[in-house]
Design a protein that fits this description.
By secondary structure, the protein is of the alpha+beta class. The protein contains 6 helices and 7 strands, in the order βαααβββαβαββα. It has a single domain (7-80, 88-181), classed as 3-Layer(aba) Sandwich (Aminopeptidase). β6 and β7 (159-169) form a beta hairpin. The chain starts with 6 loop residues before the first strand and ends with a helix. The model has no long low-confidence stretch (mean pLDDT 89).
């Protein structure tokens, strides 16, 4: 499998058009087979819209290759949809809208975006990550050390959209071993 040369940078409002096209392509290909076609027809226009507030936060990043946006992901200190208690909210960061172009899936783009988010969240004292993963992305997050904690249905444009709530410490034992080896 070829490795794509990528650059990670902070997203800007000027990226919104390209970002929406990339999100739509990623979701149309990636979510097929995990959700009913009628659910996807309702959900994709909303989830592929992009989040200007998240972009403006400075915590949303794009991965580019040869000037083209091939992935995105960010984090916030509040969840996209509240799902209940657990960890002290002031130290729990929430991964948001991670997606990768289908033609570069599995080439490290999502992991590079995750590491950028993790390091940024660590710099301000966050201790744990949570995400609301699509069914398709659950394996990706599990490989990053996330563990399943809940299953939720989020209403989007009249459709019940299944998501998996997952958590992990900001730095796992495997992360610490990798950092020590550098």
């Amino acid at each position: 499998m070829a490795t794509t040369q990528i650059d990670i940078r902070e997203a800007t409002p000027a990226d919104l058009g390209a970002l929406r096209r990339m999100l739509r392509a990623a979701y149309e290909v990636g979510l097929k087979g995990y959700y009913a076609p009628q659910t996807l027809a309702r959900v994709i226009p909303t989830v592929a819209e992009g989040n200007l507030r998240l972009i403006a936060s400075g915590r949303f990043h794009v991965a580019t290759s040869d000037g083209r946006i091939v992935g995105c992901g960010g984090w916030s200190d509040g969840p996209p949809t509240p799902v209940g208690g657990g960890l002290e909210m002031g130290r729990l960061a929430h991964l948001r809208q991670f997606a990768t172009c289908p033609d570069v899936a599995g080439q490290g783009v999502g992991t590079a975006l995750f590491r950028r988010c993790r390091d940024q969240a660590a710099a301000i004292g966050m201790e744990h990550f949570e995400c609301q993963s699509t069914l398709m992305a659950e394996g990706f997050y599990a490989r990053l050390g996330f563990r399943h904690v809940d299953f939720i249905w989020t209403p989007i444009r009249g459709a019940a959209f299944a998501l998996v709530v997952m958590r992990r410490p900001l730095f796992t034992e495997a992360d610490r071993h990798r950092r020590a080896a550098i």
